[in-house]
Amino acid sequence: MTTVVYRSLDNAEIIDVEFLTLQGRSRLLKLLVDSGFTGKSSVILGDDAFDLVHAHVPPAQAAGALHGPQNRGWVTCRIRELRFQRTLIAIVTELSPLTLPPDVQGMVGLSFLRQFDRWGAEQSTDGWQFFLSNGVG
Amino acid sequence: MTEKEHNLRIAGSISAEFAWDGQSFHDGDCVALLDGKVVAVADNPDEAISALRAIDPDPNRGMVVEVTDPMVDVVRQKQT
């Protein structure tokens, strides 16, 4: 089993996810983990991330902190330590309606987390940490 | 009607009826649309996007529809 861990913030779980452009360039983004974000879309990115979209997806309705039809696109994301790479649906929008910690550039939801065999938070000697893991362990 | 509007019209039919213009699709299919036409069907988004971009490399043109029942995205995060 391969596991990657991220140090928890006082009031949030943040992970680093690499995104690939169509040209193969990559950009590392800090994303808030929120399993209360559910639906077909896996990620929410800011409207400065349109260059990460490989193809558009028809808009879908959102409810809650974001509401109404949302622009969506296919984005390819990677976590090298887990040898994880997947093309998933992202909502690409103005992020101000969301409550994001400083320097956080979006959010991952339940459908992102369920790409992994295990995910969650645990207490370590260094404090709380969030983990993603894949493989048999 | 714009290219996007053509594609959205077809995407709506595919989502509602799992079919368009006599062609049927299965749950989970990824259908690439360009200029109001189905240009590829694949069982994963990577293959559908590759096929679409081989025809037109502009990421602002075309779209890829995942054939599935519509679902609302819910963001439960508390607003400030």
Describe this protein's structure:
The complex is a heterodimer of chains A (137) and B (80). Chain A is mainly beta and 137 residues long. Chain A has one domain (2-6, 17-132): Cathepsin D, subunit A, domain 1, CATH 2.40.70. Chain A contains one helix and eleven strands. Chain A has one helix at residues 110-113, and strands at residues 2-7, 14-20, 26-33, 37-38, 43-46, 55-64, 68-79, 84-93, 106-108, 118-124, 127-134. In chain A, the strands form two sheets. In chain A, strands 2-3-9-5-8-7 form a six-stranded mixed beta barrel. Chain A has a three-stranded antiparallel beta sheet with strand order 1-11-10, with no helix packed on it. In chain A, strand 10 (118-124) and strand 11 form a beta hairpin. The longest helix of chain A has 4 residues, at 110-113. Chain A is globular, with a radius of gyration of 15 Å. The N and C termini of chain A lie close together (5 Å). By secondary structure, chain B is an alpha+beta fold. Chain B has one domain. Chain B has helices spanning 3-17, 45-55; strands spanning 19-20, 23-24, 30-34, 37-42, 63-66, 73-75. Chain B has a three-stranded antiparallel beta sheet, with helices on both faces. A two-stranded antiparallel ribbon of chain B has the order 1-2. The longest helix of chain B has 15 residues, at 3-17. Chain B is globular. The mean pLDDT of chain B is 93.
Explain briefly what this protein structure is.
By secondary structure, chain A is mainly beta. Chain A contains one helix and eleven strands.
Structural class of chain B: alpha+beta
- Rounded to the nearest angstrom, the radius of gyration of chain B is 14 Å
Point out poorly predicted stretches of chain B.
none
Overall mean pLDDT of chain B: 93
| Rg from alpha-carbon coordinates of chain A | 15 Å
**Largest interface, with Cβ-Cβ < 8 Å?**
A-B, 33 and 34 residues
Q: Judging from the principal axes of the Cα atoms, what is the shape of chain B?
A: globular
The succession of helices and strands of chain A, N to C, reads EEEEEEEEEHEE
Q: How many beta-strand elements of chain A?
A: 11
Q: How widely separated are the two ends of chain A?
A: 5 Å
The largest sheet of chain A has its strands arranged as 2-3-9-5-8-7
Query: Domains counted in the coordinates of chain A: how many?
Result: 1
Euclidean distance between termini CA atoms of chain B: 40 Å
Mean pLDDT of chain A: 96
Helix content of chain B: 25-40%
Report the oligomer. Answer: heterodimer
Percentage of residues in strands of chain B: 25-35%
CATH architecture of chain A: Beta Barrel
Strand portion of chain A: over 45%
